[in-house]
# Entry
Amino acid sequence: MESARPQDDWQTCFTQLGPALLLFARRWTNCRAEAEDIVQEAFVRFWRRQHSIENRALLYATVRSTALDRLRSDQRRARREAAVALDGAQHLEPQFTTVDEGQRMLTAAVERLPNEQREVVILKIWNELTFAEIGQVLEISQNTAASRYRYALSALKKILQPHE
Amino acid sequence: MNDFSELETELKKLRPAPVSTELLARLEHALAQSAATPTAGLIPRRTKRSNAWWSLGLGLTTASALVLVWLAFFAEPPPAPPFVAPNATVPAEPLDRGLQPSALTRVVYRQHDDGLIFSPNQSELPLRRVRYNTRETMQWRNPQTGASLRVSYPAEQVVLAPVSFQ
# Structure
């Protein structure tokens, strides 16, 4: 049973969750404006249905379904975005606020990860979801989510190894 | 996972890019619109009150249907009125409940001997059949009121008596 919540504190919730939601939405687009559109539509849908903000898995699942719906609604754009995703292309706009060279290298390493690994890392590190919740969002098993996370960290370590 | 703890710490130090003020403004506008027109684009969650009324209506309908089925198939029909023969001459109530039997007479006015009767396979002894034509008279009397009732009717009695040969 979801707990009640005040109706006028959406700004507090979104200020806290918005950056991570936007980061997650960038999985389907390399355009920040489109990612913002996805997040806006998903958050409005989630908020209007009066779900508890504690139900993070449902919130991220809403973002994911919204993104997929938008991709399906525009096949040409979908093909373009899928091609970008499969190629692991670099995102044109920064997804993190970096302060030093080490963080910029780490950011670059994260963006080089395969999509299915990067989204697990995003949900685990910056959204603090459990593997069970990640599995629920991505419609995969908990073990698969954990495996992808381990592969991602191994890949990051390998990428960063020569620079350490 | 201990191998990755340092890496995880470094990753957590990264801060995702903040959302733009434009997105906040758009969200505020969208949520304000949705509050004004709650059915625009999305289906609002039903309130518990409407669910309760819907459930109450369904429950009453089901109960009514069950009552109708019970009345149609299981309820006992109303008791039928007692059957009275259209040409009955016997009164529904006895003339006098205080009547008591007072006399019984049987007068034999004719006796006729039919002779011996043999069984078809001769396995049993022969029987002598005798017919008696009688008139029997029964009488009732009420000792309190002195009322009396007498009934007389003819009767025939057949007696079969075994015959022994010596």
Observations:
- The first strand of chain A starts at residue 96 and ends at 97.
- Residues 121 and 149 of chain A are 6 Å apart (CA to CA).
- Chain A touches chain B through 38 residues (CB under 8 Å).
